[in-house]
Design brief:
By secondary structure, the chain is an alpha+beta fold. The chain has one domain (5-231): Phosphatase 2c, domain 1 (4-Layer Sandwich). It is built from seven helices and ten strands. The protein has helices at residues 43-59, 63-84, 129-136, 144-149, 183-186, 191-199, 204-217; strands at 5-12, 22-28, 31-38, 90-98, 101-107, 111-116, 119-122, 166-170, 177-181, 224-231. Helix 1 (43-59) runs antiparallel to helix 2 (63-84).
């Protein structure tokens, strides 16, 4: 049985961009939480994030529906990119409650974390060359090469090859705390601060505010979006 969730969502434009190209959606009955991060700062970025989240919200009733929603978004976003002769794409990370369980869907470099019994784990893999480089030791994680490779996504919505999202079935336990966030949070808020924030006996709303404030204090170099969910 899937527990009930207390949840909150928040977003911040930061200082680098004049507009926010992140998109978030949150429903708790049934649970559907999603964050998308548009690539770049043009019309293709805004269209991709909004379209992908809208398709997911309309269709997600099963794991197959989630995959189908991403496939549909792939086509629409790619078509728009050709129409404007420019970049159109986004990431997507979502938790979706369905009759057959709780599913995590992921494509790109937004992230999902879970805090359980004091351990904060990353549940997703960044679909970037930087991630491959870190895993296989191509270059130091904090090197200029790694920094450049973080912008090289191997999978995203709108990719011409229409790659499938990662899908994983989760079993939520009372007391679990989940964080879905764009890279504006993941790249700017250190792990230990994230762990301390999600461990506090406070509300999801307060946790979201703390994470976004920390991203801003770190430079606000990107749009930052976070959804925090505490399982009851």
């Amino acid at each position: 049985m899937i527990p009930t969730f207390r949840a909150a969502v928040g977003t911040d434009t930061g200082h680098r961009y004049t507009a926010n190209f992140d998109v978030a959606h949150l429903d708790t009955a049934p649970l559907l939480a999603a964050v998308a991060d548009g690539m770049g700062d043009g019309p293709g970025s805004a269209m991709a994030g909004r379209t992908t989240v809208d398709r997911l919200v309309r269709a997600a009733r099963s794991a197959a529906d989630v995959a189908d929603a991403v496939t549909t978004a792939h086509r629409e976003v790619a078509d728009y990119g050709r129409e404007i002769a420019g970049l159109a794409g986004c990431t997507l990370t979502a938790l979706v409650e369905t009759p057959d369980g709780l599913w995590l869907a992921h494509i790109g470099d937004s992230r999902a974390y879970r805090l359980r019994r004091g351990l904060l784990e990353l549940l997703t893999v960044d679909h970037t060359i930087a991630w491959l480089g870190a895993v296989h030791g191509w270059y130091p994680f904090d090197s200029p090469q790694a920094a450049a490779a973080r912008y090289q996504l191997t999978r995203y919505v709108g990719h011409p090859a229409q790659p499938e999202p990662d899908l994983a079935k989760l079993t939520a336990a009372p007391g679990d705390v989940y964080l879905l966030c764009t890279d504006g949070v993941a790249e700017q808020v250190p792990y230990h601060l994230m762990h301390d924030t999600l461990s506090r006996p406070t509300t999801p709303d307060a946790m979201v505010r703390t994470l976004l404030s920390a991203a801003d204090a770190a430079g606000g170099n990107d749009n930052s979006t976070a959804i925090v969910l505490r399982a009851g």
